[in-house]
UniProtKB/TrEMBL annotation, chain A:
PANTHER family: GLUTAMATE SYNTHASE [NADPH] SMALL CHAIN, GLUTAMATE SYNTHASE [NADPH] SMALL CHAIN-RELATED
Protein name per UniProt: NADPH-dependent glutamate synthase beta subunit-like oxidoreductase/Pyruvate/2-oxoacid:ferredoxin oxidoreductase delta subunit
Ranges in coiled-coil conformation: none
Gene3D superfamilies: 3.10.20.740, 3.30.70.20, Alpha-helical ferredoxin, FAD/NAD(P)-binding domain
TrEMBL record, chain B:
UniProt entry keywords in alphabetical sequence: Iron, Iron-sulfur, Metal-binding
InterPro entries, per database record: 4Fe4S_Fe-S-bd, 4Fe4S_Fe_S_CS, Nuop51_4Fe4S-bd, Nuop51_4Fe4S-bd_sf
This protein's name: NADH-quinone oxidoreductase subunit F
UniProt domain 4Fe-4S ferredoxin-type: residue ranges: 122-151, 152-181
PROSITE patterns linked: 4FE4S_FER_1, 4FE4S_FER_2
Pfam families named among the record's database cross-references: Fer4_10 (PF13237), NADH_4Fe-4S (PF10589)
Stretches for region Disordered: 185-214
Amino acid sequence: MKKIRLKIDGYNIEAIEGQNLLQAALDAGIYIPHLCYHPDLTPSGSCKLCAVEVEGQSDIVQSCETIVEEGMVVSTKTEEVNKLRMLSLELMLASHPKDCTSCDKYLNCELQALMQYMGVSHSRLRDIEKENTRIAVSDNLIKKEMQRCIQCGRCVKVCEEYRGVKALSINKKNDETYINTIGDKLMIDSDCRFCGACVEVCPTGAIQDMKGIFSKDSPKNMALVPCKNDCPAHTDIPEYIRLTKEGRYSDAVSVIREKLTFPHSLGYICTHVCESSCKRTYLNEPISIREIKKFAVENDKEETWKTKVKRSKSNGKKVAVIGGGPSGMTAAYYLVKKGYEVDVYERQTLAGGMLSYGIPKYRLSQKIVDNEINILKEEGINIHLNSNISSLDELKDKGYDAQLIALGACNGKRPPVYNKKWLNAVDAVDFCRMANEGKLIELGDTVTVYGGGNVGFDCARTAKMMGVKTVRVVCLESREAMLADKEEITAALEEGIEILNSKSMLTIEDDEEKINSLTLIDIKGFSFSNKGLELDVVDGSETVLNTDMLIFATGQQPGLSDDFGIELVKGSFAKVDDKMKTNIDGIFACGDVSYGTKSVVQAIASGRDAAINIDLYLGGDGDISDILYERQKKNPNIGVKENFAKLNRIETFHNKCEALEETDRCLQCDLRLDIQKVKYWVDPHYKKVKEVTE
Amino acid sequence: MICDKKLEFPKWDESDLNSCVVDYCVHIMDTARRESCGKSVLCREGTWQAYEIIKYIAKGNGRSDDIELLQELLEQIKRHESCEMARDAASICLELIVKHEDEWSKHIRRKICSNMICKGMYTLYIDPQLCDGCGLCLNSCPSNSIAGGEQMIHVIDTELCNKTLACVHVCPKGAIKKAGAVKPRIPKEPIPVGNVGESSDEQIGKTTRRRRRK
């Protein structure tokens, strides 16, 4: 890149040959007002704000349209220039609403910033009322307030030349121009890909994101990609979806592996919060992210990620991890890579925790779990199976520099009134474990599951598969509000499982040892207050159900007792601070044992955090990040896809074709982050000019 | 190049007594703003703003600093707009503002349009001497602002009149006329035809006080 020199307002600056004058000035820290110009778009010189005078030229020129030349002498603030700028801005404001404070872009608006910079308000000119501002309509994703549009044309340009979509244009009706989709179609009927580029470049409040789509608690660059933001491990979902689309499964898996330790298992059983927050949900249905992950993992023949894993030299320090579930194994894996010697103590005969003993085999086969554990183990984790640690004292003399409690939440939790040992009542977590171990007791002809979450359905479906004639799920929630995944509910119904919604258990009729029947009552609603569960019952709606077996799927809790040697909260949870430390120095806790039953992916994320915190505690840098796939510059040009807004979700893939179709539905929210940000005049960048010396 | 629009604007005939320079400029700017492709601010907003200001002047709502503002606006369009059509429209108007400064000033300061073309500058009335009560005008008026009946001298309610001039065109007697600042004496309500004496005709326009205003 050849550098050339020029003088702007007396400052000697350097510019790149071929660059436009406006960008050169902005880069050098000299602010020239501009509005229709955007660094990613072709300049058009239509707003007249970036006007400047160039020595030797009789007329004012638009700096965005002028290419820099060696020795150019430029003035950006002459009287003539100011006159043109002021008038142009006033003209734009003549038809712009004056109620800035009622606009959602208030204080974050380029137009407003320009008004402040130039000291222009609505004044000399006549107000102009435009008619066609009501034509363009909002939809679920994009809010249009076109009365605020100043027709700078950026949205049209970004859609056409940057995205290659061309859904927007300057239209004309009754001799008045306005911006809308071509042919005034609804956005869902147009070629719009809902990428949000138009929102990103709009300098006013005319085109905005619909409120509520993006989280307000996260920084903008995270919030704009909701799937990645809401994934507890922040997996780079849009990137691996794109790679899967291109058939680069190994690269896709590398992206997944950067954050997740059990991708194949997650492909089957992840609770996929990413899908719940997927922006496409507002259009029709979310992307089948979990299925895409599974498809990528199962089609990755090369496993290139393995060659790129970052490994540190041994640092001679030892860490014990108590519990070989997803959280503990994840922490162990990253700690081993950081050079620690790690012993994992697992009380069961298999590692994997809930993956091995909680989730029924029909949902996730043991082979997959074993394989994933082996992959982690290969890094050099020492796993001690059948090693129950019931007190920290047992590890006291083994010379560990730090210990991590990752025992999970493996005890059932019933409503307190039902804490009685009946022969034919069992907690869901025990039921699942026994089923997975093949040690299940006699169930009888009718099984009732109390609780309508995913675990409840695991139990019900397992019972049904074992040949129980009548299986019922009783839950407080209405059908619509049920906590279990939709696909679980559908499958259960297909298998002939009854679901009794909006019911609560009133009493259990027993003969000391055995439950005979249950009395249920209909409820209109329920809530949890500090007094516990509060019900709004329908009087006189009691029904009696006979059952041979009752399974409580009403929650889980850790099995820690005071004897373990750390401070507990809420009965059996490990008390941790924000660094995941317990009250005992060097003892950390992660996963369900520290925050309660959540999900496997949450446990993995927690395990990663634990590894970071332990490394920092032991004097490391806390950096466990891996770059397993070197990101390439993303192509902003996404082009047109026929009927894009109406493409339906494909739940499961039977072939590459279906996988391709589903990946194509992705809105690629992350591409928006690549659009350059326009710096306001108050930006620190403009505080000092980057001058070059002669 | 944003737009390569060109437009041949009709020339203004200065000698035509049925035309007015301000009215002509309203039309030029109206045409320009309607033809604008919308891409450039001086063309899209500039011509519209100029049209808006001239329209105010034509309606008798001009402000004393309007000429200055208009000149600045047109000057900027003429010099800096890349669209040839907008530039042409601006130079035509600019030239006419300079050349006919008096007429523009009359419009703004005295609300007078010499040829009584600009609608804010005159009212329509029915000459009671000429009206024969035929009723054609009454039916032609889209705003129902004419009162009258068979064999009655018709009267225009100037408050309601939109000056579409439809009545002027249908009146077989040429009885419907324009009045500027000086208003003739006419009946307030319809009266039978022939009830207006010769003498009253002579009074028209003569008894009203001459107004002198700068």
